[in-house]
Structure formats: structure tokens, C-alpha cells
Amino acid sequence: MMSNKVIIVGSSRKNGNTTRIIEAVASQFEIDVVNLSDHNFSYYDYESTNRNDDFLPLIKGIIEKYDTLIFATPIYWYSMSGIMKVFFDRFSDLIRIEKEWGRKLRGKKMAVISNSHDFESELDYNFYIPFVKSAEYLGMDYLGSKHFNADIPEETQNIELAFL
Ligand SMILES: Cc1cc2nc3c(=O)[nH]c(=O)nc-3n(C[C@H](O)[C@H](O)[C@H](O)COP(=O)(O)O)c2cc1C
User: Fold this and answer.
1) Has the ipTM of the complex gone over 0.85?
2) How far is the CA of 149 from the centre of ligand 1 (A)?
3) Which residues pair with 9 in a beta bridge?
4) What total of structural domains would you count in the chain?
């Protein structure tokens, strides 16, 4: 069955906490997964000299196939992971050189899955603002977020995702 939801994972390690949590989410909810580590793309370039790297085919494939994009990232320095930030920066290509693809994001849905060694109630800063504001800018509907404590493996059993 083709799912119209995809989890886009961006972590500095491929077999770490984020991947483990997302494997559990994906199997419980039958959601496809794209791991950014499987793709080669570089940080945003105003000259677009990297226009032939993996970013454009990757995002176009995601836009064509899915209506809900769930971004999964560990918390690194109170922010999304570096690879996820680079992926987000490349959305500027969809605003500058591939505008028709940027417009196709309008009306799609965005959600976020984060993890760290804290409980969600202990996050005393708004980690999710870049996602909320980016969704708003891109015309996407922000559904919400779910935070996992990577030290509590039981959290990945019987997961409830309020945003789905
Ligand atoms: C570079 C780096 C920065 C981190 N910064 C934070 C942080 O600001 N707050 C926090 O709670 N945990 C922080 N952590 C811990 C990670 O969020 C946590 O270990 C997470 O589960 C790692 O997921 P991963 O295995 O997919 O990398 C950091 C870890 C790394 C490697």
C-alpha cells in the first residue's frame, strides 16, 4: 500500500537514536522513510553550482509522492541537526530556481519528530519555531510535533502521534 506520508530523517549517524526511533514509528504506522544520509547534497549556494547534486531529484520525488512530510531530527545544540538544516536551506532552490516545485509544497502538511535525552516538558526553548515558520512561509499546514526521550526505549512501544 502506498503511503502518502514520509518521514525524512536527518542525523549525524545512520544507526543512532533517531534512526532507531523512526524505525519503530515507521513500522507501527506504515510510513515510508527517507534517510538524508543516503543522499549527497551540499549546503545552499547562491550561484546554484550544486544544482546537479541529489537535492533536486530527492525533493521532487518527495513532492510528487507524498502529502505529509514528517521531519525527524535529533536535537543538536538546541536546534535541528546540521544535515536537516542543510536540507531546509536548499528549499531556497525551490523558491529561486525551481519555483514551480516550490509552489507544489503549498497545501502539503508538515510535522516534526525530535529526540534528545530530555523529556518534552524539559525543553525550555521553542525548538520547533524554524519548522512552524518554514511551513507558514512555504504555505504548508503545520500539524505538530512529537518528542522522544532517547533514553527511554519503552517510548517507542505503542506510540501515539497526535498529529496523524
Ligand atoms: C553535536 C551534538 C549536539 C547535541 N546537542 C544537544 C542539545 O542541545 N540538547 C540536548 O538535549 N541534546 C543534545 N545532544 C544529544 C542528542 O540530542 C541525543 O544524543 C540524540 O538522541 C542523538 O540522536 P542521534 O543518535 O540520531 O544522533 C547533542 C548531541 C550531539 C552529537
Assistant:
1) yes
2) 11
3) 35, 72
4) 1
pLDDT digits (tens, 9 = 90+) for 88-135: 999 999 999 999 999 999 999 999 999 999 999 999 999 999 999 999
As a 3-state breakdown, the chain gives helix, strand, coil percent values, each rounded to 5, of: 40, 20, 40
Residue 113 lies in a domain: yes
CA distance 48 to 95: 12
> Is 31 inside a domain boundary?
yes
CB-based contacts of 151: which residues, under 8 Å, 6+ apart? 117
- Is the Cβ atom of 116 under 6 angstroms away from ligand 1? yes
- Residue 161 falls within a domain, yes or no? no
Q: Which three cell numbers stand for residue 10?
A: 536527518
Ligand 1 pocket test: which of 11, 73, 77 has the largest number of ligand atoms within 8 Å of its C-beta?
77
